[in-house]
């Protein structure tokens, strides 16, 4: 049997860290099962809660899934476009006596629950409108639109075979006759999920363990539709992610939408790597490429306990990925970050060069972009404080010598450029600082930049010489 998994977010906000991990596990389980192209990964937008669902949230989720490159198969399903289908299934269940119209008012239902509580029982609907052999139902009240309730089995057990939590058994007497359609005809959440999972042929439901309570209800409805011997999906309820204070991860922990991590300069591969390890391990390996995750991931090895989100570790994983990613594969993210800083239209070759120099010295792509800005921004002024401190009467002459040394280099690279700079310091019997700081100010306008090798390598020969020329005359005028 080939595997079909799904990710089924409710579009009430952005894709958060927990949702992204669920999506990743579902994607991995589909893609890692039985070789490429075998499993299917379905994306379903659960937008039936019309008050809380928004188009912006749908878009935010799709953007985040695209950025993470968790590609789904086939069309994207929207529950709001499937209402006719849900209505048909509800009619079928009523016809088969597996669901029924209930005319009890909200007050009556509350009173039933109260009565059950008073007897020390679980608050439940008392079955007034449930058809039973030999029972005569009350006359439907005029002018009342009924809700539709599912006739939950009155005895027996429902067993969840959970790949993460093991078997969970619930007595059906604990379960209410769930409302599956409201008085206005709209289907309810648990019902839509069941019809969808059935229609979409889902074999594995992988989701957060906040849904465990829904599962026995969903299994009973599903059994009513496919029969007791019909195929049921296998469930895997993934434990939640906690913040460092042991509370459920939330905005307070800075863990907001996935795309915030993009803004902060994380690589999608690094975020996925970090997320896959939150609750799953393969020996003591920490760093995984996407291919390695696909090779080793096994949903049955997901651990049952909650895991704790650790931003420092995420940053470390990101840095490791920056180091191991080929410079040309960083171009897309670097371009995106530079564009946010107002720098557009840089060609791939230039960005590859920059990535090659910066990737070993930065923790994030955002930092790479910020620290490369000087390459694209002409020097319009020299920081007065830096000039006062570092530009002396001898500086223009030293810089002119540096300029000539650099112009004479056969090959332009950081090492050669830095050797030429050192040569000038040696020839003039001055410390490196007397030469290096003025060069920094000359080519960036200020005293802070990557090492002199990297700074000059990033700028390139032409731009370095142009900026040095300009600084020589500017500083000469200043000190002359
Ligand atoms: N729509 C649900 C959520 O966003 C997920 C439901 C499911 O996976 O069954 O929490």
UniProtKB/TrEMBL annotation:
Reaction catalysis annotation: tRNA(Glu) + L-glutamate + ATP = L-glutamyl-tRNA(Glu) + AMP + diphosphate
Subcellular location: Cytoplasm
Sorted UniProt keywords: Aminoacyl-tRNA synthetase, ATP-binding, Cytoplasm, Ligase, Nucleotide-binding, Protein biosynthesis
Motif interval(s): 'HIGH' region: 9-19
Function: Catalyzes the attachment of glutamate to tRNA(Glu) in a two-step reaction: glutamate is first activated by ATP to form Glu-AMP and then transferred to the acceptor end of tRNA(Glu).
PANTHER family to which the protein is assigned, alphabetical: GLUTAMATE--TRNA LIGASE, GLUTAMATE--TRNA LIGASE, MITOCHONDRIAL-RELATED
Protein name: Glutamate--tRNA ligase
Origin organism lineage: Bacteria, Pseudomonadati, Pseudomonadota, Gammaproteobacteria, Salinisphaerales
Gene giving rise to this polypeptide: gltX
